[in-house]
Known about the structure:
Order of helices and strands: EHEHHEEHEHEHEEEEHEHE
Number of helices: 8
Strand order of the largest sheet: 5-12-11-6-10-9
Largest sheet: 6 strands, mixed
Amino acid sequence: MKIANKPRMKVYRDYSTKNISFLKMTKILTKLGVKNNDFFLALRDTDLIGVDPFDPFLTDDMKTKIVHECFTNKFYYFRECLRVSQKGSNTPVRYQLHLGNLSIHFLRWMNLNSYLELPRQCGKSIGAAAEFGYDFLFAENSEMGVFNYNNDMVKTNIERITQMLDLLPHFMRWHTLEKVADKDNPDLVDFKIKPKSNARKMSATMDMRGNLIKGKTPGINKSRADEAGRGATMLHQWWDEPCAIRNFDIAVGAAFPSYVTASREARKNGASYSIMITS
Length: 279
């Protein structure tokens, strides 16, 4: 996802959105005295006002408009395209915005490192997974790291990311495609749907955009913690539950210097980057 400076284009505010949580957030920020209190209602293409990205009768032109809007406007993606599964129901719900996840979205939008601490069952992991899912979908040739205190939790967070992507409009599910080389013409590249697997994984790939998510567990001793962090040049890093990670200070101490070098290069190339810590 390139963020290089480009000529400014007019940005509108979509107060007709059906995502009530975004409308409520404007009122909350207004009461808090925040002047820029509706930036997350941004809409660049007014042809999308009132358009449901899940409408089965969308034209190809409208699908292209939706993808382009998501690419240039992450808040439209969260507001209109993202869905979250519910326990005990087969019907996913719209992504719910609150001050916690809004803070993460804004800071990462600015390429600023962030720390988010929320009470249990307040959507901390959902917000972080939504962020990583967006960059996994729209970034380009980026390596992303998901860290936690054990492999099961790493796998759970990677599942959260991919499961949210599974609920996107069908024409945006690029993560389900894998690259296929033509045997007769190696330079010709095509894509096909990946075979489904129920296996829980420590990684995820996005062949169409060249993105990779790597899961890592720092381990129980200092040498393994140093090994997990060393060489961590991932432009996007998600460290979850740091208080439960043994030798967390050693792991991040090894990881952050490599990240600083990689982030400087990313900034030169107009690519997004940041470290996100959640607890």
